[in-house]
Amino acid sequence: MNYIPINEQDKKEMLARIGVKNTEDLLSLQIPEVLRAKKLNITEGISEQELLLLFKNYAKKNKSNLVCFRGAGIYDHFIPSLVDEIIGRSEFSTAYTPYQAEASQGTLQAIFEYQSMICQLTGLDCANASMYDGATAVAEAVLLAVRTSKKNKVIISSAVNPEYISVVETYTKNLNIEIIKIEIDEKTGSVNQNLLQSKMADDIGAVVVQSPNFFGIVEDMQVLSEISKTKNALFVAIVNPVSLGLLKTPCEYGADIAVGEGQVFGNQMYLGGSTFGFLAVKKALEWKIPGRVVGQTIDKNGKRGFVLTLQSREQHIRREKATSNICTNAALNAFAGCVYMACLGSNGIKEIAETNISKARYAFNAIKKIDGFEPLFSNSLFFNEFVFKTTKNVKKIEKQLLKENILGPLNLVKINKKYKDCIMFAVTEKRTKQEIDKLTDILNRV
Amino acid sequence: MNKLLNEIKSNRQECRVVECDVPIDVSIDMKYKGQTVPNIPNLSEISLLRHFTNLSRRNYALSTTFYPLGSCTMKYNPIVNEKIAKFEEFASLHPYQSEETIQGSLEVMYELERALCEISGMDYFTLQPAAGAHGEYAGLLIIAQYFKSKKEKRTKIIVPDSAHGTNPASAALAGFEIVSLKSDENGIISPANLKEVLTQDVACMMMTVPNTLGVFEKNIAEISKMIHENGSLLYYDGANLNAVMGIARPADIGFDVMHINLHKTFSTPHGGGGPGSGPVGVKSFLKDFLPMPLIIKENDEFKVSFNNKKQSIGKMKAFFGNFPVLLKACAYVKALGGVGLKEASTQAVLNANYVLSCLKNKVSIPAGNVCMHEFVLSSKGHLGEGIKTLDVAKRLLDYGYYAPTIYFPLIVEEAMMIEPTETESKQVLDEFIDVLSKIIDESKTNPEIVHNAPVNTFVSRLNEVEAARKPKLHW
User: Fold this and answer.
1) CB-based contacts of B438: which residues, under 8 Å, 6+ apart?
2) CATH code of the domain covering residue A392
3) Are residues A86 and A73 in the same domain?
4) What confidence tens digit (pLDDT) does each residue in B158-215 have?
5) For A56-72, how does the pLDDT look when each residue is reduced to its tens digit (9 = 90+)?
6) Percent of chain B beyond pLDDT 70?
7) How far apart are the two ends of chain B, measured CA to CA in Å?
8) Across the interface, do B174 and A91 touch by the CB < 8 Å criterion?
9) How confident is the model at residue A216, as a pLDDT?
């Protein structure tokens, strides 16, 4: 298959119009012979039917549709059917970036509604059209904070998702920015407030904290925000949007920038991508944010419409002085997030958050009763993820669960050697009581 | 009907997409509990369906019309690939599943990586970068790391003045100083101009081939020699790879590092601005600097490798990359095969030249009368009094076409960049040529109608100045 709708007769006429004998002549007019490629060593093309069979065969080699108790940044949430129906519409999925505003009002209004809902959810004043994912959103937030504060030291909690910390390190290493990781309080699994206080200094540009953090623990963001403000550092909150139906919003505890991973809102897991990252800021940072932003305006007849705006921050105008190099972002994934939020509404967002924490607590309490399982962190509030230390064989647990079609908790030693025998469970609203009971039953048996 | 979501009134109390079949247990300390309720309406499903479906009708998309958007390669996005990407066996995988449970997905990535190597001539690819600019950024970090490992201090990147804005922006983000290089009178890079800026502290030069004027850089062999004799590297911006698949390979013609936009050349849909994918290819001497992890094959098994941890630039994003995009690109390669890929590029070049040859007497073609897969015309001096390229673009919308890229590259006045791609029929091209010619005539005979365009779209021309002056960025 080659998807080319041009026959030999068309070709002949086109070549005649151009005034060349054949396409080879057309190419040799431009490319010196010595630079031409040899025949590509790639297998012959196949039919649509063969293609479907081929990929069905790849697909079968995956062990999929497991009952998922694994999280650590990507979560198995329920997705309302309307989300896939809407984002699957080719009018959205096959459009380009909405540069021609009049012919792109669908995409533009959708992004505007997305921005509005992210602002509503975080309480902040301005959200961009999306970043590639949560990790890159955190990295861009760090750059934004450094740019704004004009200070090049940034404190980051080591309970931030390690994938995010890696990306922050990649993004900052050539820019003369110092990333200071602060250890957590191993007892509570949350940021050590005294340690943070002691590290605060006038040259700290930003403090970056995640809540719920990598271990699922809800941080006392109010106190951490206040500590960072003592030295006028910007407070960057990494939040799980699902949790905002229950927990304080970034605005309520004084965050300057809120970022996070949007996969949990209407996007399938797909091995961790594509997803989207959201980034929202206080009004004062509006002109400094990275990436695209949609604004409301009017047309010549006074009718409401939407355009890409604040564009003089961006690479296609400002080139090397742009606030970021980002161009293509994750529009369709963010749109899935938009439709998801719309499906839930404020009532549903609260409901989902409550269902998550209720089911997680139900599972936590059941696992706690099993011999050989001890919560790693004591007396800490968690949202939908928690860590246990076990005396049982972690590999055996994983194997047995997999045998019964369950993707069990994450073995934390793979992330950090100091967490030997520690396993982290994620329990979303999608897990049923029956599934949780089966999990605990197997944990009991292993 | 032009309501915003929050202006629709169809309140419904409960949501219940999921049943809570365990006891509700939400007691938390007040210091953690949120106090505000977001203003997100609670709407019925039918009102949402209508709202978003109606929004979709206000978009021009590849599935509704010809989209000759230069530099963006808006080719047909095969429907079968969308179907494949929906397979649950791919969609439901968690990134931290063990290798043996994700062999199929790893194999797809491995197969794609090998195909991209063959098409480009590079030795290795990372599939992690999420877009073209993200790929550029990764490529430049690799170059920075390479020179660091050699303990060479090279601080500058040469970027031609015809380059995409992302090139200098990515170079700045990677910590480099940017040296702008002027194109010559034919719109290409001349060795003489290059010589003037090629100092010992140049780490690399970024080039788009064919360049943004649609012209193959015919001095590339000499340029490559100069760059490499200077100890610098050559970066290939793959935005225009659709011109050369099976025709010329970046690695063979002197490039060391490159990125590919899978959402252009490899037919994955743009999604209204993403998700994209920007795999980065390198020659073997740069392999150790690639981002982690890499997908490798050992004894017929696919593995996720962190072997290059010591020298790697690190991670560009979380996990592997934009998997569904990779999957669709792989399906595209398999469907076309080696011969089909060359046919695609060849036809793209033929289509662009056909449109060019039909329009060349109506406008100026600053880079000459032959092009690769796209061309840039200048409307300066060819339109009626007071009519600009912008007006022509807006008038095209009235005729149902999306507009070509305008005012880019910056080196051409009143530029319009047309890329028809290989998946359009001669009939579509002929109709477009007729319409564009007609608009050029209209600009002289009936300038008002062009100046006031568009009138057939959902909104008429929008006030962008007002939007930026008093930003209203949410409801």
Assistant:
1) none
2) 3.90.1150.10
3) no
4) 999 999 999 999 999 999 999 999 999 888 999 999 999 999 999 999 999 999 999 9
5) 999 999 999 899 999 99
6) 100
7) 17
8) no
9) 97
* Same-domain status, B318 and B224: yes
Point out the residue among A26, A321, A436 whose CB comes nearest to the CB of B349: A26
Contacts with B47 from chain A: Cβ below 8 Å: none
Residue A4 carries which side chain, given as an amino acid letter? Answer: I
Where residue B1 falls among pLDDT bands split at 50, 70, 90? low
In a mutagenesis test of the A interface, which of B35, B39, B40 is the best target, namely the one with the most A β-carbons within 10 Å?
B40
What tokens does B214 get?
């649609």
Q: Is B125 within 8 Å of B113 (Cβ atoms)?
A: yes
Distances (CA, A) of B417 to A27, B212, B298, B432: 20, 9, 46, 14
ipTM given for this complex: 0.97
In degrees and rounded to multiples of 5, residue A87 shows phi and psi of: -70, -15
Instruction: Determine the structural domain holding residue A388 and report its residue range.
Output: 67-77+346-445
How far CA B440 is from CA of A169, A295, B377, B437, in Å, comes to: 52, 32, 13, 5
Query: pLDDT of B299-349, one tens digit each?
Result: 999 999 998 889 999 999 999 999 999 999 999 999 999 999 999 999 999
Within-domain flag for A181: yes
- Tokens representing B475? 């409801």
| Structural domain boundaries enclosing B404 | 343-451
> pLDDT digit string (tens) for B242-287?
999 999 999 999 999 999 999 999 999 999 999 999 999 999 999 9
Listed in sequence order, the residues at least 6 apart from A186 whose beta carbon sits closer than 8 Å to its beta carbon are: none
Tokens (6 digits) for A45:
């093309």
Q: How far is B249 from chain A (nearest CA, A)?
A: 6
CA distance B127 to B330: 12
Radius of gyration for chain A, computed over Cα atoms and rounded to the nearest angstrom: 25
Distances in whole angstroms, Cα of residue A358 to Cα of each of B19, B26, B227, B275: 11, 6, 62, 34
Residue A12 lies in a domain: no
Per-residue exposure over B264-299, b if at least 16 CB sit within 10 Å of its own CB, e if not: bbbbbbbbbbbbbbbbbbbbeebbbbbbbbbbeeee
Distance between B415 CA and the closest CA of chain A, angstroms:
15
B439 in any annotated domain: yes
Q: Are residues B327 and B348 in the same domain?
A: no
Whether B32 maps to a domain, the answer reads no
In chain A, the number of structural domains is: 2
Considering only CB atoms, B397 lies closest to which of A31, A103, A339, namely: A103
pLDDT grade for A37, boundaries at 50, 70 and 90: very high
**pTM of structure:** 0.97
Considering chain B, what is the average pLDDT of its residues? Answer: 96
CA distance B327 to A271: 12
Cβ-defined contact of A294 to B473 (cutoff 8 Å): yes
Helix and strand numbers, DSSP H then E, in chain A:
14, 17
Q: Residue B15 pLDDT more than 80?
A: no
Q: Across the strands, what pairs with A308?
A: A294
Six token digits for residue B455: 């009138």
Q: Are the Cβ atoms of A430 and B358 closer than 8 angstroms?
A: no
pLDDT band at A379 (very low <50, low <70, confident <90, very high): confident
Do A314 and A276 lie in a common domain?
yes
Residue where one domain finishes, among candidates A280, A311, A340: A340
Sign of CA dihedral B27, B28, B34, B38: negative
Query: With an 8 Å Cβ cutoff, are B370 and A169 in contact?
Result: no
- Residue A62: DSSP 8-state: B
Closest CA–CA distance from residue B115 to any residue of chain A (Å): 7
Chain A residues inside the 8 Å CB shell of B171: 320
